[in-house]
Specification:
With about 450 residues, the protein is mainly alpha-helical. The chain is built from 17 helices and no strands.
């Protein structure tokens, strides 16, 4: 099976700068997972599971860890930008599938950044009282600032990520600190009453489906592989460390939340975490969590911006997108053309302000990508010609990860309305049309890839 043909680098063409170590790698993943969403997700999960919300997060960790371990293993085997795209082609040998995987991930990143820009603007106005200023103006300033940081270099982006992640962690640890004296005050296995007898197990599983999405973000770590020192070791170490640290924080916050506030009140509260702190430590001003939310939102947008730019860069290097997107700035060592293109797409997205359903649809696309990636590792592990990496896992793990992702897709489609699946299908159709257009305008690259697989 042939690989995607990599563009050869001439002697004077710069490459991405390898400067990211294990500490920054772990915080990069944490920054993507510990977004502002957890502040509201605790309340929603409590409404589903009651006091057993902590158990739902543990079950979700096991489910998410299956796919995370697959990513870690693939990162140790094939450390490169747009790694999911590369391994999909290496396993299946189908350029269209690789293209769809890559653009699905780009769509996920774009909708996340655009959404976070408006959330950032709203919280910024609340914190500083800029009532006369439109939210979109602050959102555009945020997008411009993120573009400058990402262009400046991976080290600059990583240190901003470290700052924002530390602030986000500090906010969640503050919640635990003010409420830890309440631990042990409730029955932590109490769940909402269910008809038909004791269905605690099923209730926890339903809550775990919701909690699973608090762990999404680990996949971003694979896409900066070409900027990581010793990626074969650093990616697995950073990825698994980030997942376990996030799980510990989530479980501690969940236990604290239901200990301080009855789960019924927690589910009804507009700001569950703010409600916990207001009851446990009234002296702490609520505006503090508005400020922390700004850091968490800014961080999520930054990580997704970096990830999307590396996806475009990696897909270009693999001949799936135009050559210019694979260019690296000689001095900054960043994919500057890809960064500029993303900024130009993000501005109208942020101005539209109607991307909530689009964001929900991209979650379905992301789960589909996870299923493809798990399937890729399963296939590659069964191929004798493939060289193993430094971090190997049993073949049953990607198989189970594949089944879990398919199950989550079924749950999301069957329990939600028709709009998200319809939009997801429309996005896939749009990606397919782009592929057809590119093949029509520049067929040589795709045909060469197909000839290698023949």
């Amino acid at each position: 099976m042939g690989d995607l043909r990599e563009k050869t680098e001439s002697g004077d063409e710069p490459a991405l700068h390898r400067s990211v170590g294990p500490f920054q790698m772990a915080l990069y993943g944490l920054g993507s997972m510990l977004g502002a969403g957890i502040y509201g997700l605790i309340g929603k999960a409590a409404g589903e599971v009651g006091n057993a919300v902590w158990l739902a997060f543990l079950v979700a960790l096991v489910a998410a860890l299956l796919t995370a371990l697959s990513y870690a293993s693939l990162g140790s085997r094939y450390p490169r930008a747009a790694g999911a795209v590369y391994v999909a082609h290496r396993a299946y040998g189908f350029p269209l599938l690789s293209f769809l995987v890559g653009l699905a991930l780009v769509c996920s990143g774009l909708t996340s950044v655009a959404t976070q820009s408006r959330v950032f603007g709203a919280n910024f106005m609340e914190l500083f009282g800029f009532d006369g200023l439109p939210v979109v103006a602050i959102a555009l300033c945020y997008l411009f600032a993120m573009t400058v940081i990402v262009f400046r270099g991976i080290q600059e982006a990583m240190w901003v990520n470290v700052l924002c992640t530390v602030v986000s962690i500090a906010g969640l640890l503050l919640v635990v600190a003010v409420g830890i004296s309440y631990w042990g005050s409730v029955d932590y296995l109490e769940t909402p009453p269910a008809s038909g007898g004791d269905q605690t197990f099923l209730i926890v599983i339903q809550g775990a489906v919701l909690a699973f999405f608090a762990f999404i973000g680990f996949e971003d770590m694979y896409n900066v592989a070409e900027e990581v020192r010793d990626p074969e070791t650093t990616i697995p170490l950073g990825l698994i460390s980030a997942m376990l640290i996030a799980a510990l924080i989530y479980v501690a916050v969940a236990i604290t939340a239901v200990s301080v506030v009855p789960w019924q009140d927690l589910a009804a509260a507009p700001g569950p975490i703010t409600e916990v702190v207001a009851r446990a430590a009234p002296a702490v001003p609520p505006v503090l969590f508005t400020a922390i939310t700004i850091f968490a939102v800014a961080n999520t947008g930054l990580v997704n911006f970096v990830t999307a730019s590396r996806l475009l860069y990696g897909m270009s290097r693999q001949n799936l997108l135009p050559n210019h997107l694979g260019r690296v700035h000689r001095h900054r060592r960043t994919p500057h053309i890809a960064i500029l293109v993303l900024f130009l797409i993000l501005v109208p997205l942020a101005l539209l302000g109607t991307i909530a359903e689009l964001a929900a649809a991209t979650v379905l696309l992301l789960l589909t990508v996870f299923a493809v990636v798990n399937g890729s590792l399963f296939i590659l592990k069964g191929r004798e010609s493939e060289r193993p990496g430094r971090f190997e896992i049993p073949r049953i793990i990607p198989a189970l990860g594949f089944l879990v992702c398919l199950g989550l897709i079924v749950v999301r489609v069957s329990t939600g309305d028709w709009r998200a699946p319809a939009i997801a299908g429309g996005l896939l159709l749009g990606c397919f049309l782009i592929y057809v257009l590119m093949r029509t305008l520049d067929p040589d690259a795709i045909r060469e890839i197909e000839r290698e697989d023949a």
